[in-house]
Design a protein that fits this description.
This protein is α+β, with helices and mostly antiparallel strands. It contains five helices and eight strands. Strands 1-2-3-4-5 form a five-stranded antiparallel β-sheet, with helices on both faces. Strands 6-8-7 form a three-stranded antiparallel β-sheet, covered by helices on one side. Helix 1 packs across helix 3. The longest helix has 18 residues. The chain is globular, with a radius of gyration of 15 Å.
Length: 174
């Protein structure tokens, strides 16, 4: 049985394997890449192990979560994308991060389009959100190219701001 969740023209998006821990750590351990993710700090190997536990729990509970992304032509994890409910929030949120050497190649947009298609088709999700730092113009471009629309600018508990993006599936009931 394959662990592939969906494929795009260039990519295979699949469930995580235990053997992927070093690959996950390579993405999450990059301080420059992580400045845009979560609290902006790289995470440790133990935190990556806990991340795997949470991800598997999401697979069991919802049938989706965070997934590894590889090129079809060259196996090896280059990043991740997925659908999550941070802090138990109701709305499904899309997230992604990639090794820096793969930035600017359209990979994030391609994977995100596939992820939205997967979520709407396989899980009947009608609406997704994404959140970014207001100054993260590269991520804004990815989200827009993937079909998401800029939403409100939300004030955070710490006094900062988060830019909301939204996707509403065509023909979804309001």
């Amino acid at each position: 049985m394959t662990d592939a969740v969906f494929e795009t023209e260039r990519l295979v998006v699949r469930r995580w394997r235990d053997s992927d821990l070093p690959d996950l750590l390579a993405v999450y351990g990059d301080a420059e890449a992580m400045r845009w993710v979560g609290d902006g700090q790289p995470i440790t190997e133990n935190e990556c192990r806990e991340w795997f536990v949470v991800t598997r729990r999401n697979y069991d509970k919802r049938g989706y979560g965070m997934f590894a992304v590889e090129f079809k032509a060259q196996p090896g994890v280059i990043g991740f994308c997925g659908i999550v409910h941070p802090g138990g929030q109701e709305e499904p949120e899309v997230k992604y991060a990639y090794l820096r050497k793969f930035w600017g190649q359209g990979i994030a947009t391609e994977a995100l389009r596939g992820l939205i298609g997967y979520g709407t088709t396989e899980h009947r999700i009608a609406r997704f959100i994404a959140t970014t730092a207001p100054e993260n113009s590269a991520s804004h471009a990815v989200l827009t190219k993937a079909g998401m629309s800029r939403g409100e600018l939300r004030k955070d508990e710490d006094g900062g701001f988060t830019q909301l993006f939204e996707y509403e599936a065509p023909n979804s009931a309001a």
